[in-house]
Amino acid sequence: MKYNQVWQARAIRPDGCSEWFSAQVPGNVQYDYGVYMGWGNIHYNDNSTLWRETEDYTWEYRTVLNYACKEGEKAVFVSKGIDYRFDILVNGKVCLSHEGMFSPVEADLSDAQPGSELVVRIYPHPKREDADEGCNQADHSAKAPVCYGWDWHPRLLVSGLWQEAYVETRDAGFIRRCEPFYTLNADRTHASLRFETEADAEVEITLFDPDGKEVGKGHAFEIDHPRLWWCNGQGKPELYTYTARTASHEVKGHIGFRTVKLVMNKGGWDPLPGFPMGRNVAPIQIELNGRNVFAKGSNWVNPDVFNGRIDYERYETLVTLAKDAHMNIFRCWGGSGTHKEMFYELCDRLGIMVWAEFPLACNCYPDDPHYLEVLEQEADAIIRMLRPHPAVVMYCGGNELFNNWSMMTDQSQALRLLNKKCYDLDKDRPYLMTSPVLGMGHGGYTFWNPNTNQDVFTIFQNAHCTAYTEFGVPNMTDLENLKKIIPEDELFPIEAKGSWKLHHAFEAWGELAWLCPDGMQHFSRGKLDTIEKMIAQSNWMQCEGYKAIFEEARRQAPYCSMAINWCYCEPWITASGNSLITYPVQPKPAYYAVQNSLRPVLASARIPRFDWKKGEVFHAELWLLNDSVECANHTIKVSIRANGEEYELLTWETGEVAMNTNKIGPTINWKLPEWDADRFTLVLSCGDASSEYTLCFRPDNEW
Amino acid sequence: MKYNQVWQARAIRPDGCSEWFSAQVPGNVQYDYGVYMGWGNIHYNDNSTLWRETEDYTWEYRTVLNYACKEGEKAVFVSKGIDYRFDILVNGKVCLSHEGMFSPVEADLSDAQPGSELVVRIYPHPKREDADEGCNQADHSAKAPVCYGWDWHPRLLVSGLWQEAYVETRDAGFIRRCEPFYTLNADRTHASLRFETEADAEVEITLFDPDGKEVGKGHAFEIDHPRLWWCNGQGKPELYTYTARTASHEVKGHIGFRTVKLVMNKGGWDPLPGFPMGRNVAPIQIELNGRNVFAKGSNWVNPDVFNGRIDYERYETLVTLAKDAHMNIFRCWGGSGTHKEMFYELCDRLGIMVWAEFPLACNCYPDDPHYLEVLEQEADAIIRMLRPHPAVVMYCGGNELFNNWSMMTDQSQALRLLNKKCYDLDKDRPYLMTSPVLGMGHGGYTFWNPNTNQDVFTIFQNAHCTAYTEFGVPNMTDLENLKKIIPEDELFPIEAKGSWKLHHAFEAWGELAWLCPDGMQHFSRGKLDTIEKMIAQSNWMQCEGYKAIFEEARRQAPYCSMAINWCYCEPWITASGNSLITYPVQPKPAYYAVQNSLRPVLASARIPRFDWKKGEVFHAELWLLNDSVECANHTIKVSIRANGEEYELLTWETGEVAMNTNKIGPTINWKLPEWDADRFTLVLSCGDASSEYTLCFRPDNEW
Fold first, then answer.
1. Superfamily of domain B601-698
2. Are B175-258 and B601-698 in the same CATH fold?
3. pLDDT tens for residues A576-594?
4. Sheet order of strands, B2-3 included
5. Which of B275, B422, B439 sits opposite A443 (nearest CB)?
6. What is the pLDDT of residues A636-658, one digit of tens each?
7. Is the CB of B427 less than 8 angstroms away from the CB of A409?
8. For the whole model, what pTM was predicted?
9. Distance from CA of A667 to the nearest CA of B (A)
């Protein structure tokens, strides 16, 4: 039996303790403290900086224990995770000390009784003493580093009882653990399933098929022709369910039968140029149930600065939006750490594959005994939490660790340790040391590179990667949301300071990103002299930019096997940024553009660049992209629209295009007329659906 | 007490058993059988093919046990390794079954007595059924694959009691294990040493310093200012020794205090070109005792086709030759597996670092449960044997596994397992998945590429690798040795068949390698119409080629950190090949050329190509290479010799060149006269020493 508790918290500040204030669990104590202090909405203006003074506070949660123990029961305080270093005290005596936010903890309450006081004392955030302010401060800890500040995340050091916490009374029938393991035969027509249980009583397990029909009872099952778990777009994410019962306790869970490997990308074994010869690329092609699947999706970051406050509804809305956008993967970026288990359950249920990174990002995590010990403990907990989830298709050491802003290497003991832990606990799930590894690419993150005068159309058509696992194009947030974060007197004209800067419009990435006013103006015929014009321009570019990259990555299949943009959601309302969704769950126009580009069967145009001049020959290669599991066969009509007129260019009969295959068609070549317009639209009609690309047009030489 | 045994062996052939014949232990039963059958010298003509019929034989060794057990002793049969799958039978009863040649085995002789018969029954060589003949047949086994045939190794499947084997009587004082472990503080001024022992009696350990002076007794020692183990050229390979004693047993060993890491090569963190961005190179710079060391050495392969017959004297001669050639590293190539422990002891003593590969090479070793189980057992044994040796500076999964002739990847479970085992048992020693990894280069293996008309001078000056860990230039074996392998009537003119082909002169590597008559003739003014002329030409090219590559690799330091040629020794007399030493221990002319190029302080010329025409401006960049631990400061006189005349070109005062540093000097430019010669020599005199480069000269246009 579980008993939720009523919690209070207080800050132990240099000048003494605050009063006790009401605290939500799960949650973050910093949020509760902000409410207590009346600091207002964190999104608005520079409110977020108010929390800076709390960084080195010690915090205490307390509850007067509320539970009832029957004869033969014992009581345990349980949490799925407490952030980050803490003691648990019962009646003033420390009964447990722990470092690490991802490992579950249990405190025996033998010495307590209902009415006893339980305190969780949380120590200040880890900060390496000689580190500059930023994520480097967390480079000796296994804390998710994002809250130390990122180019799209305010500095806001959170901690607390971020996962559920309760008192549980347990009798002899308590099931401490019940975990399914299965093997599939070579052609996946037979599954051997067994359960490992830990309990002092007999556990009865009942297995149900995905329709809820009982399959049988026992601790081992042989299942002929198991219904397989597939990711979105490749089949149904079939889940078997089970209940494990004793006289007094029941636990439930689900199983998705599937195999997953990372196999060499098609063409990845092509001969290397002459001697001295290096190595071939690293494999990053996902093979799900024996089938190579093109991974299309987005980088998942913590959807709230207060990670403890994210609830099921938020996760469900966000994951459902990904499914609706034809995505099949989230790369769960290491900087944000691992998430609440319900997120992975949702991904199981909705068919979104998960690339699960350990909580390392952009730092050089050291070969330090204490760090390695905490990391091992945390990795153990993370792997045990993730491994029952069919959606989790790979582990990864963390983000961009083999790049010169991190300076970790293949020899780093943390990454060798993570390999070892994954091998020991879950060796059939792939493990990648970091992203990117050889062959893969991260970036770029803006629409246009002013140094080379290349836009993302050109840049990605000249790239040749096995996987694009980060790329981004920023937009500017809509006016309604901007008004929630920028004081009215700062709203326009926009200046590179104050709220705009704090909300990442400037100096987040170089001088001018994420707003990138130079790029916006470069592709605008008229002066962007109102905020509405700027917003519209930024959305145009974000939509066309994202379409160009996602579709180019798909066209580069099968050598390319992944298109995963940076990023999906955002943890607070940014003024400008690369996400597809505005905080908390509002799709941007680019979300719908990407949704269109990720349709399983897509008529797609490879357009060499975004901007065109009058009189030039416009050219574009036609493709039919098919990552559905059906054969496609379409008539594609190509036209160009500008200035209210429509010009029909050609019709392409694609013929049959097999499942998970692309086909190249003709190239259209068409001399652009002398429109008085700043844009034109290429339209590929394909049955009821169409793909539209609205491109920049320069009718005169000034522009 | 150890009792050597007298052994006999027999072949269990399809047509029945052979007689018992005398067998040497350690050794290979195939050698003994050859003697018994009167097959003669394996090197001569096609004698080696006689062994083909034995490939699928089962073999039995037998001995009538000879030992004496005192009261309280028990007897154990011990071997350090038996190749490959075998049973041990005592009085006809199987008492042990085992797969794997690298793990030591012990068979309890409780049921035996002196005079009992002990049989080792060895099963046929592992051969994957559907594999073509060659090393692929061994791709599901942990057997060293080289004996299945390589481009420089005859197919000769050996097995047997290749390591020492004896009966040992043990009483309660027997020391089952005594192993030292130490840590050094950050600046290596203090060592904490502890011993792990396994024995039923009290073990007394006495430690001695490198001069043999007793340091103390105990199981743990704190040593201030320990004398460090250094590789050849960087300091002394200081070894502490210890004895561990009980009343009845004594074991001895040594300890070399040192730290070793693979750190990023200088320049390896330089920014990568634009987005999408991959990863930086993998580190391969050896940091020994905090000092970056340029690794110069050679690839060690099994020095005998009959690997069991190699004895201490052979190892000592070969390792001493490497030391004398200023080498400091052997890459122990995975195809030849791990060697007898005395080899590593010699490397400890002589200061030759060892890059130790697991027995995987050029195959795709599968994610197969049985294979992984055997590999884990073998890796465990190999790591435990190697880890006390200071010379061993790194483990490596095996040879060229990430290339398309192997097709293993970062995801291969065998390599993930090896990484895990190394981490578990010896985590402070680097582990490399394979060679090459990103940044490194293997090859080329011939002097001249006829397709590009580039020689190794040009090829390596245009390469930019972190490490050159395989490269080769072939020569032709001297006449005396050729006569040992080629029947007189085949000797000349040379034809691409028979003995020449069997001894790797043709079709070993493409059509014409390793003899490469096309390349030899290309750089010869006159027709190579005698075998003496051919031998001389091949030695000229091998010497100049090896000098060019070794010196270029040194000049590319510190980005480049290794020059390790293919290969050092050879397992039998080849007709042509890349080794520096002719079987068994005879240095080739190229050995001396390499010895000169590896002198710690070397005046070196970067000459853009091997062949020059009359009237051209010859140019060469001057360098002083210093990988000694002293500051160098020299006067270098540059001259050219041809047709008996000497032309003085310039004198370069190098000024001070710090230890382990190179310095570039002036470039000489000099118009070549109209000599009637086919070669000229550039001479850099530097005190008593000189560096000489004899280059090809074309006095007319026909040639």
1. Immunoglobulins (2.60.40.10)
2. yes
3. 999 999 999 999 999 999 9
4. B2-3, B165-170, B74-79, B105-108
5. B275
6. 999 999 999 999 999 999 999 99
7. no
8. 0.98
9. 26
